[in-house]
Amino acid sequence: MLRDIPPVGIMSTEVTFENESDFAAAIAEVRNDASDVTYAFCGHVDGNPNVLGLLFKGTDNSEIASQMDSSQAMYGLARFETQVDMSTTVKFVYIRWMGDNIPFAKRGKFGVVGGSVDEKFSPYHVQVSTSSSDDLDTDKIIQMLMETAFTKSKVLESETDVSSRQMRGFTQTQLPQRNQKANFGVSAVASKGAGVDIQPDVYEGIARVREDTDAAKWMLAGYDGANPKGPVTCMGLGDGTLSDLQKSLDDSMPMYGLYRYEHTNAEGILTVKFVYIVWVGSQVKPMTKAKISTHKGAMEEIFCPAHVYVFATEVSEIDEAEIIEKIKQASS
């Protein structure tokens, strides 16, 4: 059953700082190899999505995990050192923390300004997006940094290396299996491609599909008027099955979807898995295909992490039985 999304108030997609100079000074310290300060974090002032303020900074990265607040969205930059080929290399990690206890409506609003927040911390070598303090273990982050140094990035092995290896059908990736809400993600520094205007209802739709207490099981976003220049808007939100999502696909338009699947693993534990769908209908013009290819990074940043990736030009390529099998393989 397709449901309308409740109206979303118009809000800015940009963030500003309560005190820009304080933030700039803290980030400068983190980026200065001679400084003892190795990390700095900011958060939303009084819960305002459009205003950030410096929260704290420190000199010991092992303290970061203990300072995360499950009721807040927090963003930070940390400096790490890795040993590569007998030499010490400085790496920067951007951490985006979304606490589990943030109300889903507010989480959607924070998502609207996510792109603007990310720009404030660029450049960096690895991005960690999480709600679990386990993902902020220093040894784990250093391991990820080492892997990217040897062109063995978790991104390329999992969520975002979809163009270089992409064939018809889909590939899958297994996320950490700590619990059903695991959402660890890393992103190596790379070009995000061309920007595209993404409407707030897209972020809210995604937030509702990811929210355990919401009935929404899937959402679809597409280009308004089938114009690849955008904006991208939410075109469907439903509480039904994958077949309901399939019925909402448009052959003349590129679309992006997120599908929530609940799966009981071999240990009898109920887990939630997410499927990211990229749809390029058979009637989409070649010029449109070329244009949207530049939006790949921006869209993955919004829809990922996901356990299974599906690229399809025909409805038959979005096969539920095959998706379920891939999910089971990833969970075994």
Automatic annotation (TrEMBL):
GO MF term list: actin filament binding
Residue ranges constituting the ADF-H domain according to the UniProt record: 14-146, 193-328
Gene Ontology CC, one term: actin filament
Single Gene Ontology BP annotation: regulation of actin filament polymerization
UniProt KW Cytoplasm keyword: yes
InterPro entries to which the protein is assigned, alphabetical: ADF-H (IPR002108), ADF-H/Gelsolin-like_dom_sf (IPR029006)
Localization per Swiss-Prot or TrEMBL: Cytoplasm, Cytoskeleton
Keywords attached to this entry: Actin-binding, Cytoplasm, Cytoskeleton
PROSITE patterns, alphabetized: ADF_H
Coiled-coil regions listed in the entry: none
Family, per entry: Belongs to the actin-binding proteins ADF family. Coactosin subfamily.
Function (record text): Binds to F-actin in a calcium-independent manner. Has no direct effect on actin depolymerization. Acts as a chaperone for ALOX5 (5LO), influencing both its stability and activity in leukotrienes synthesis.
Subunit structure: Interacts with 5-lipoxygenase (ALOX5/5LO) in a calcium-independent manner. Binds to F-actin with a stoichiometry of 1:2.
Protein's name according to its UniProt entry: Coactosin-like protein
Phylogenetic classification of the source organism: Eukaryota, Metazoa, Spiralia, Lophotrochozoa, Mollusca
